[in-house]
Design brief:
This protein is an alpha/beta fold and 326 residues long. The protein has eleven helices and ten strands. It folds into two domains: 170 residues, Bordetella uptake gene, domain 1 (D-Maltodextrin-Binding Protein, domain 2, 3-Layer(aba) Sandwich); 118 residues, D-Maltodextrin-Binding Protein, domain 2 (3-Layer(aba) Sandwich), CATH 3.40.190. Strands 1, 2, 3, 4, 5, 6, 7, 8, 9 and 10 form a ten-stranded mixed sheet that branches. β1, α2 and β2 form a beta-alpha-beta unit. The N and C termini lie far apart (74 Å).
Length: 326
């Protein structure tokens, strides 16, 4: 065989495994589209801590908080990164459910097609909260106050179009078309700080974020947004128990990557996430924070879940007649 034939043969052969670049070859950024201290941040830090060791001896996952626009800013940042496995997103019901449903004109991405679904991480209910010193001791008290003074009470959220905003609007609609002044903040931690200071009258906040404030008395929980009481705080009734029917809204977290993530990296990330979420200690830590860790799930199941939740929130927007950003 002559030299030219040998060269052609060598070119046709696959590159040896040793020639392939190792992954990860630098820290992986896990983008959290909200400020530190909220439920998404809590779940992300637990996941990052345990996943890194399962991706290689030298692997590191760094949580990067990029808050704003109800999660849309951080999500859009992650979308625009290279699909090389070095950028992940802890997507939320706000960034990939309520924002696209209620504010499509201000959401610069397709929540499904612009991302690669890696795994469902977990979720949990929201809770209607008031300041610890609030005169409204029950959900019935709060509803009566809004009926008596339409638009006079203030309603805090972690951003227009976010999960808290959409849920609060839906609760008011289901309670008879009530109104409250909407005051958006940059994240759940800021909302709860405002609650503790008595700056606002009420909020629909993720139970995971609100739990420490409920325990220390700086906030008071009036009702959870699911049909049954939650085991983290079984003393708080459901909305159905206090006369607001047909409200079943949960927040959730999905691990996503930019679209076109190579299949081998997707498989490794999915396996690592599922292994971490199966650890009893991790499930206990998440449960203590109000996050119900997901059971083992495949990327295609995560994508199907995202599609279904987006459709649900679009239905809520239509049913409640919610018009935001107009």
């Amino acid at each position: 065989m002559n030299r030219r034939a040998l060269l052609l043969l060598a070119a046709a052969l696959p590159a040896p495994a040793l020639a392939q670049a190792p992954w990860p070859d630098r820290p992986i950024s896990l983008v959290v589209p909200f400020t530190a201290g909220g439920s998404t941040d809590i779940a992300a830090r637990i996941l990052a801590e345990r996943m890194a060791a399962r991706l290689g001896a030298g692997a590191r996952i760094i949580v990067e908080n990029r808050a704003g626009a109800g999660g849309s800013l951080g999500a859009d940042f992650a979308r625009r990164q290279a699909p090389d496995g070095h950028t992940l997103l802890m997507a939320t019901a706000s960034s990939h459910g309520t924002n696209p449903a209620a504010l499509p004109q201000t959401t610069p991405y397709d929540p499904v097609e612009d991302f690669t679904a890696v795994a469902i991480v977990g979720g949990g209910p929201l809770v209607v909260v008031v300041p610890g010193r609030s005169p409204h001791r029950t959900m019935q008290d709060l509803l009566a106050a809004m009926r008596a003074r339409p638009g006079a009470l203030s309603f805090a959220t972690s951003g227009a179009g976010g999960i808290g905003h959409l849920t609060g609007e839906y609760v008011m609609a289901r309670a008879g078309g009530l109104r409250a002044e909407h005051i958006p903040y940059r994240g759940g931690a800021q909302v709860l700080a405002a609650m503790a200071a008595g700056e606002v009258d009420w909020s629909c906040e993720v139970l995971a974020s609100a739990a420490p404030h409920l325990r220390d008395g700086t906030s008071r929980g009036l009702a959870v947004t699911v049909p049954r009481r939650h085991p983290l705080m079984p003393e708080i009734p459901s909305l159905a128990e206090v006369g607001v029917a047909d409200v079943d809204v949960t927040t959730w977290n999905l691990l996503l990557a930019p679209k076109n993530l190579p299949a081998p990296l997707l498989a490794r990330l999915n396996e690592a996430a599922n292994a971490v979420l199966a650890e009893p200690a991790v499930r206990e830590r998440m449960a203590a924070a109000g996050v119900d860790a997901a059971d083992r799930n495949a990327p295609e199941e995560a994508r199907a879940f995202l599609v279904a939740e987006l459709a649900k929130f679009r239905g809520i927007v239509q049913a409640a007649g919610i018009a935001l950003g107009r």
